[in-house]
Amino acid sequence: MSSRSLTARRSLAPATALLAVAGLAWLGTIIWARGMGIMPGTMGLNLAVFVVMWTLMMAAMMLPSAVPMVLLYARTLPAGAGSRLALFGLSYLLIWALAGVPAFALAWLAGRVAPAHPTLSVAAAALIFAGCGVYQLSGLQRRCLTHCRSPLAQLLHYGNYRGRLRDLRAGAHHGAYCLGCCAALMVLLIAFGVMNLTAMVVLAVVIAIEKQWSHGAGFARLVGIASLALAVLVIIYPGLAPGLHAGMDMGMGM
Question: CA–CA separation, 204 vs 150, rounded Å?
Fold first, then answer.
């Protein structure tokens, strides 16, 4: 067997495994979301269950865009080191799981605001959209996105890691930069509804385009401008933020 064929086979296995995990995460997310619908707040979930749900969602949305980095990292590992690659992936997801704690706090706050304060709900939606737009246009987002778009450069950096925690450190490092790149987009789920499947799919596609398309950096700025536009439009059309208004509508219908 040629070295090229061997390399292709070594790349195919981790890519297939990663996409399979992402596919199962999407399946689990869809099943979970069908029983909840678009609701404001934490949907009655406690912190632990919310973080589990959030981690499942992040696995579905983020793992496909992480494939290039994972494939390159796999090439630095010896044959049969699948457990080491799994550690890289688990530490990557751990960063997103930890992000579920502030997400829970924001969702909890949204759940308190939405049913009883319609005007404040609109203001909160406008603030979320505007905050996302400003962050998408910021230098910090640009630096984090550059990291995610340049896996080879990061691979050289990870080559300096030593010891048993090397794979955990590398996965967490990459996850932290991905969080910095996409955090503002995830906050939009508070406005759209945490379990809004349509919003999840759209955001997952946006993230993939930002990271993989040759003009992804420019696209990220366009997303920022669009988010600023939504900050104005939601004042006129509050329904653009169903995650901050569904509870209000339900309460009015009782």
Answer: 19
C-alpha to C-alpha distances, 247 to 59, 123, 134, nearest whole angstrom: 27, 16, 28
Angle (CA) 107-111-113 rounded to 5° is 115
Tell me the pTM. 0.86
Is 99:57 a contact under the CB 8 Å cutoff?
no
Instruction: Give 221-243 as a DSSP string.
Output: HHHHHHHHHHHHHHHH-GGG-GG
CA distance 57 to 44: 17
Residue 147: alpha-carbon gap to chain centroid: 16
Residue 152: the pLDDT is: 75
Q: State pLDDT tens for residues 58-96.
A: 999 999 988 888 888 888 777 667 788 888 889 999 999
Q: Measured between alpha carbons, how far is 142 from 126 in angstroms, rounded to an integer?
A: 23
Give the span between the Cα atoms of 68 and 142, in whole angstroms.
19
Give me the DSSP letters along 17-72.
HHHHHHHHHHHHHHHHHHTT-S-STTTT--HHHHHHHHHHHHHHHHTGGGHHHHHH
Q: Please, which pLDDT band fits residue 27 given cuts at 50, 70 and 90?
A: very high
